[in-house]
Amino acid sequence: MKSFSSRLITYAVSAVLLLSSLNVQAQKTALKDGIWRGIFKIGDIEVPFNFEVSNGAGKAPVFTAINGDRRDEFQGRFISRDSIQVNLNTFETAWFARIESDGSISGVQKSLVPGNNSRTLSFTAAPGKSYRFIEPGKEVAPKADLSGRWWVKIKPDADAEGKPAPDRVAVFEQKGNKLVGIILSVSGDSRELEGNVQGDEFYLSGVTGSSPAYVKGKISSDQSISGTIGAGAHPTRFEGIKDDKAALPDAYALTFLKPGYDRLDFTFPDLEGKPVSLRDEKYKGKVVVIEIMGSWCPNCIDQITFLSPWYKENKSKGVEAIALAFEAKDDPAFAKNALTKLKNRYDMQYDILFAGKVGGNAVAEKLPAIDKFLAFPTTIIVGRDGKVKEIHTGFSGKGTGQFYQDYVKKWNEDLARLISEPLP
Fold it and tell me: Within a 10 A sphere around the Cβ of 311, how many other Cβ atoms?
């Protein structure tokens, strides 16, 4: 039987826990539901963004990032009575923020990867503000309509030895002062950006879970544009010329197999550590889609949102798929955790293999048959005879409009042809 003193201690502890729980519940009401406006601080650059909070007074508030027509949901949780953590989906990155007395929040975005000492970005956000860059009533009539396609020519920095950078393509849509757009490169796209045109200046930003992106530009008297674009403290300078025929190089003509090779050969562990090889019986006589990717890569995620449902619809036709994941750490336990979250979130029903740590010449070392690897993701299509038929560099998501539609059309035509081929 417990002594009086031990029972007293038990009651006291229970009371403290109850009061703590009540305090947390009371504090949760300070996280206001509805539209918010935040500002990231990147060096001397301020990058505004918008999101919506729902269930702010509950145990698991949901944050929905708003960028044009795109919506990205992030799950939040209270980690103390006045602090929250918001995990940015599969990017191993999170917001850590304190709820201030006025209902606003302030905090940082930082990596969740153990040992990753990459930059930490500070931000603040306040509820009830739906504008992006320009406050209502302070708009200045735009000097031009930027709607359409643009050649975006990257200006080399002084320390870049004057080497030319590949051109990019921008697609803008403007309605009054409001501007949305996306910028494509050979490695993929910027994801959706949103902003304003203010007189002869324009501004765009985007926050979809990875690093914040921004564009700041000027409209010249000849209707050309110039400015800076980036996701870091040292943005890239650019010049732009409107051209409705602007397009990137053929993504199927950038990466190849080296002379003397007509197929791939690899063995990597799956999420349970079991070795999986392209030579396994499971893949013989099948059309196999191989995606070189990483859970940290935004364009890879967009490619997965296309491939995952496509695979489920077509796997009964003699199709297989394999994701070769290059991750932030050369650690099977870390990779299993990150890739399991990815698999569950996007219902990836095909094999996911851990190929090693991203960086340097990792892909060239692990897949020596590939020549000129340029981007994550890269998609390799293998025919029923085991030979590589096509290699596609990068990925242009739904926000790129016609570019995405053209990709899907060619993909469906090519895969239908390969699937219809007889077994060897």
Answer: 18
Q: Is the pLDDT of residue 1 over 90?
A: no
C-alpha–C-alpha distance, residues 325 and 89, integer Å: 17
pLDDT for 123 beyond 80: yes
Q: Specify whether 103 is located in the same domain as 183.
A: no
Instruction: Give CA–CA dist 23/369, Å, rounded.
Output: 60
Six token digits for residue 256: 């190849």
- Rounded to the nearest 10 degrees, what angle do helices 332-346 and 298-314 cross at? 60
What are the pLDDT digits (tens) for 140-188?
A: 999 999 999 999 999 886 555 556 778 999 999 999 999 999 999 998 9
**How many Å separate Cα 185 from the centre of its chain?**
15
Closest CA to 41 of 207, 182, 158: 207
Nearest to 407 by CA among 247, 224, 207: 247
Domain count, the chain: 3
CA–CA distance, 161 with 100 (Å, rounded to integer): 47
**Which residue range is the domain that position 401 belongs to?**
256-420
From the list 40, 342, 279, the residue with the least C-alpha distance to 323 is 342
Given pLDDT bands bounded at 50, 70 and 90, which one contains residue 6?
Answer: very low
Return the amino acid letter for 350: Y
In the three-class reduction of DSSP (H, G, I as helix; E, B as strand; rest coil), residue 50 is classed as strand
Query: Considering 96, 127, 158, which residue would you say is the last residue of a domain?
Result: 127
- The alpha helices in 367-420, defined as continuous H runs, are 402-420
Residue 43 has pLDDT above 90, yes or no: no
Distance between terminal CA atoms of the chain?
79
Asked if the model's pLDDT at residue 14 lies above 80, the reply is no
296: left (phi over 0), alpha (psi -120 to 50) or beta: alpha
